[in-house]
Amino acid sequence: MPNEKDSRARVTEEEKFIFSTADTCDFFRISRETLSSWQKKGAPKEARGKWNIKALMEWRYTGKNAESSETRKLRAEADLKEAKAAQEKIKLGVTKQEYIPASVIQSELVRLLGNVKKSLLSMGHNIASDLAALDPEAVTIAKNEVDKRVNDALAELSEGRLYRGHAKKKAKK
C-alpha cells in the first residue's frame, strides 16, 4: 500500500477507500458533471463530497448501474417521439398517394391467383394433346395423373398447407 501521507485516499477500518469528489473524478478521469450524473443513476456515495471507490467501481463495472427512472422516462419520451414521427411519415405518404389501398391489392391478387388456377387446371389437357400421337392409353394415364396432382396441390394450398408433391398413399385393405 502506498505511503498514507502521499495517498489522498482515506482507508477506514472496513477497508473502504474513501475519496473526495475531486479525487474520485481524477481516479475515473471523468468530470464532476459525469459523477453527478452517476449519483442520479444510483451510484453509491459515502457522504457529502466523499465516495467509496471500491463500491463505486463495483456499481460501475458489474452492471449494478441500472437505469434510473429519469433515464427510462427520457428514453420512453424519445421512443414516443420516434413513433409519432413514423406515423406522420405514413400519413404524408398516404396523402401523396405513395401507398396502394389494401382492397386494390386484394382484388389484383384474386385475379392473378385465378389465372394461375386456370393455367394449372388446363395443364393435363395440354399434355394430353402434346402426347396424342403416342399410345392413347398412356396419354389418358398421364392426363389423369397430372390432373390429380394439380387438383391435390390446389386443394392443399387453399387449406393453407404446403403442397409437397407426394402422391397420397392408398390404405391397405
Describe the 3D structure.
With 173 residues, the chain is mainly alpha-helical. Helix 6 packs antiparallel against helix 7. Strand 1 (10-11) and strand 2 form a beta hairpin. It contains seven helices and three strands; from the N terminus they run ββααβααααα. The chain starts with 9 loop residues before the first strand and ends in a 15-residue tail after the last helix. Strands 1-2-3 form a three-stranded antiparallel β-sheet.
What is the fold's blueprint, element by element?
Layout: E1 10-11, E2 17-20, H1 21-28, H2 32-40, E3 50-52, H3 53-61, H4 69-95, H5 102-121, H6 123-130, H7 136-158
Antiparallel strand pairs: 1-2, 2-3
Question: What's a quick, concise take on this entry?
Answer:
By secondary structure, the chain is mainly alpha-helical.
Number of helices: 7
Give the biggest beta sheet.
3 strands, antiparallel
Can you give the helix content as a percent range? 55-70%
Rounded mean pLDDT score: 80
Strand order of the largest sheet: 1-2-3
Radius of gyration: 38 Å
What structural keywords apply?
173 residues; mainly alpha; three-stranded antiparallel beta sheet; 7 helices; 5% strand; elongated; disordered N terminus
